[in-house]
Design brief:
single chain; alpha/beta; Nucleotidyltransferase, domain 5; 2 domains; 7-stranded mixed beta sheet; 5-stranded mixed beta sheet; globular
């Protein structure tokens, strides 16, 4: 079945689209990526999306306009990726503007903006959306969901495999090996903490808004990280919580950044960016070190996806933190780094159309369920 997946992540860079052909076993499908497209949000739209996630107040009319504009970009990405209308169904994540983990309140909640009926009507195709709400209602975090793709499409090998997504937030999947004492273990997955979000906000701060991100890691590569500050930060409560756990820009946003910038010894712009970059890598390193010490899990491969995988400074720091592990981008296994999450929501839509129950062991949900809601044109 041809399925189109649409995804816009925490960084709010734009919409990624993936046209995928799925066949065969629902748990281990035969798949082929037929086409992919990444479409950037217009600058003003991206600015508003980020600001509402940091507390900007909008009127009802402005919220309506925002949802329409987000939907129009999703429509354009879908048409560019699948101009001949091959897809039988669309899996659409929408744009996250707020995420509340369960430990913050009596239950978790997450808001993704998309006008699914409008999108279905524009495309003339059924749209599956709202993938997180059922998981949250069942006591889960609603995130991360992309590890489900890693299990189904990447699968096991001779040793432990990791899949790291470096979006605004870093999330990690660990897949047990085919052989050895760990072969019957369950897969693991969780949100590690900030990946690009604090780096991007820091770049915007030091450039007075002229730049959105550290292109090619050039600022970080010129700076010197403050590891004394980083080591203090790694002791914070969130980084000590065992999985399942999730987070977002609500926790690691502008206020959090401003506090950290004041704690860095050198106030050189390049040192500030280098420190935030090394912090993101150190979070991953600490999580993997803790796993080895507590469970004896040692990765053989770490496949990296997301926008942060294109940042040489961040990738260099991750390799330093993960010595002895082969760290490569997911393109090595046929999954473009920008498209992994769009493929995940294509897969979830395919599963929905087959009424497949999903046991999301990564989120802490109480029981298995069919994730998503369907709207027809």
């Amino acid at each position: 079945m041809y399925v189109l997946g649409l995804m816009s992540g925490t960084s709010a860079d734009g919409v990624d689209a993936a046209l995928v052909d799925f066949n065969g076993n629902l748990n281990k499908p035969i798949w082929q990526l037929l086409n992919s497209v990444s479409l950037e949000y217009p600058g003003d739209l991206k600015k508003i999306i980020i600001e509402v996630g940091q507390g900007r107040t909008l009127s009802s009319a402005q919220w309506l306009t925002l949802s329409e504009e987000i939907t129009e970009v999703h429509f354009s990405a879908a048409k560019n990726c699948d101009p001949n209308g091959l897809a039988r169904v669309i899996g659409c994540h929408g744009q996250t503007v707020f995420h509340r983990p369960p430990e913050i309140s009596s239950r978790g909640a997450s808001m993704q903006i998309i006008q699914a009926p409008l999108l279905a009507t524009l495309l003339g195709k059924p749209v599956v959306f709202d993938f997180r709400s059922k998981d949250l209602a069942l006591g889960g975090h609603g995130a991360p969901l992309s590890p489900l793709l890693d299990l189904a499409l990447i699968g096991s090998a001779n040793g432990w495999r990791g899949v790291l997504n470096l979006g605004g937030i870093a999330n990690l999947t660990l897949i047990p090996p085919l052989f050895g004492p760990h072969r019957h273990w369950a897969a693991l997955g969780w949100d590690c903490g900030p990946a690009n979000t604090l780096i991007d906000f820091a770049v915007q701060r030091v450039s007075d808004g002229e730049n959105y991100f550290d292109r090619d890691g050039l600022l970080a590569l010129e700076g010197a990280p403050d590891f004394k500050a980083i080591n203090r930060w790694l002791k914070e409560d969130f980084f000590q919580i065992p999985p399942p756990k999730s987070t977002g820009r609500e926790q690691f946003g502008l206020q959090d950044l401003d506090r950290r910038l004041l704690e860095i010894a050198s106030q050189k712009k390049t040192d500030l960016i280098a420190t935030m970059t090394a912090f993101s890598a150190s979070i991953i390193g600490q999580d993997l070190k803790n796993l080895y010490q507590s469970k004896g899990i040692q990765l053989v491969d770490l496949f990296v996806a997301g926008g942060g995988s294109k940042n040489p400074a961040l990738m260099n720091e991750i390799r330093k933190q993960c010595r002895g592990v082969r760290v490569v981008r997911t393109e090595m296994i046929g999954i473009p780094v920008q498209i992994r999450e769009a493929m995940a929501f294509a897969l979830l839509a395919w599963w929905f159309m087959h009424n497949k129950l999903t046991t999301n062991i990564f989120t802490g949900a109480q029981r298995e369920s069919v994730l998503g809601s369907l709207v027809r044109p």
